[in-house]
Amino acid sequence: MLTRGAWSSKAGFILAGAGSAVGLGNIWRFPYMTGDNGGAVFVLLFLICCFLIGYPVMIAELTLGRSTEKNPVGMFNKLSRGGRLWKVAGGLCVLSGFTVFSWYSVILGWVAGYLAKTVSGTFTAQLTNAEIDNVFSTFVSNVPVVVFLHALMISVTALVVSGGVEKGIERLSKWLMPILFILLILLAVRSVTLDGAIAGLTFYLYPDFSKVSGSMILQAMGQALFSLSLGMGTMITYGSYLSRKENIPASAAWITGFDILVSILAGFVILPAVAAMNQSYAQGPELIFQVLPSIFSSMPFGYFFGVGFFLLLIIAALTSAVSILEVPVSYFVDERRWSRRRSVSIVALGAFLIGTPAALSYGGVDFLTQIPGLTMGFFSLISTIFGDISLSIGAFFISIFIGWIWGVKNGLGEIESQGNAFGLRKLWSFLIRFVAPITILIVFVYSVWSSFLI
Fold this sequence. Notes:
The structure is a single chain. This protein is mostly helical. The protein has a single domain, classed as Amino acid/polyamine transporter I, CATH 1.20.1740. It is built from 19 helices and no strands. The chain has helices spanning 10-21, 24-36, 40-68, 72-79, 84-119, 129-140, 143-162, 165-192, 197-205, 214-227, 234-239, 248-276, 287-298, 302-335, 340-359, 366-369, 378-405, 408-415, 425-452. Helix 1 packs across helix 8 (165-192), helix 5 packs antiparallel against helix 14 (302-335) and helix 8 (165-192) packs parallel to helix 12.
C-alpha cells in the first residue's frame, strides 16, 4: 500500500513551508520590483497585500489540503463532489506547478553557474558594465552549459523529492533554512556598512507617497502572490501532510512572517549596495546577473560578498523548487497510484523537456529568443502564462471555493478542530470571501493586459 508521508514536527513543517515560500521571488524579484517601483512605498504596499490577501489565501490552502489529505485535483474533486469546473481548477494548479518548475530550474541553473563563476574569480577583477553584460549574454546563450545546468538542477531537486516528505523535503529544509537566514543577516550587515549605503537605506525605508499609482498597487499584489507561492497548490499539498493537531492560522502566520522577513532582508542586502556603488535602482530582472557582479568587482571584500550571495540565492531557489515539484508528484501518487520514485522520474523528465526551450531562449536558438508575432521569447512567454497569470487564476478559484462553494463555515470547522481557537475568524471570513477574490481578479486582468494587450 502506498503511503503519502507526513511532517514529523511542527518546526519541520514551518521550515519546509517557509522554504517553499522563500525563493527567487524574495531575493531576486522583490529587490528589483522595489527598485522599479519607488522603494519604500512599494514595500509598504507589498506588506499590506501580504496580510490582507496572501495570509488569508495561505490559510485557505492549508485548510483545504489538511481537510482532504489530497493534492489539488483530489481536494477539489472530493470537496466539490466531482464538479467538473473544480476538477479543471485543480488540474490547473498541478499544471502550473509542473510548468513553473520547468522554467524555474533554468534560473536555478543560472544561479549555479554564477556561483561557480564567482568562486572561480570571474568577478574579482574590476570589469566594465559592457564586460559584465558580455559575460551574461555569453553564458545564457551557451547551449551545452545552460542545458547541462538545467538538467543538473532538476536532478538535484528530484533526488530530494524522491526521499519523501520527512526524509527528503523536511530534512533539506531543516538544514538549509537556518543557513539561509545566517547568510542573509551577514550579507545585510556588510551591505548597510558600505560607504554611501545611507542613500539606499533612505530609498528603502522612507516612503514617498507621491509615487503611488494603480500599476504599483497591482504589482505589489502580484508580488505578494508570487512570493508566498500561492495559486499553484503548493500549500494545499503541504497542508495535506499536516497533523490535525496543528494550528493552521499560527503556522500560516509563521510561514508568511518568514517570507516577509527574507524579502525585507534581501532588500537590505541589495539596495544599499546598489546605492554605494552608484548604480541605478531601476535595473529590472537583470539586477542579479548583470548589476550585482559589477558591484562585487568594485566593493571591498566583494569576492566573499558575491560567493555568499549566490550561495544564498541557490539555497532559497532549491527549497522552493522542491515544493513546486512536489505538487505534480503528489498528484500522480494520489490519483494515479504511482510510486513516489516513478512519479518523480516522469515529472522530472517532462519538466526537462518543457524547460529546455526556455533554457535556449536567451540566444541559444533565434526562434525561441524572439517568437514571431510576439514581443517576447519562449522563456518570457511560459513564465508569464505559468508564473503570473495561472497563479492569479488558481488563487482566485481557491478563494472562491472556500469562501462560497465549500463555505467558510466548513473551513472554520477544519481550522478550529482539535480545540484550536481562531481569533481572526470574522476578519478571515470577510477577506477570503470578498477582498481576496476581487483583488486577485484585478491582478489577473492587469497581468493579461500588460503582457499581451499593450
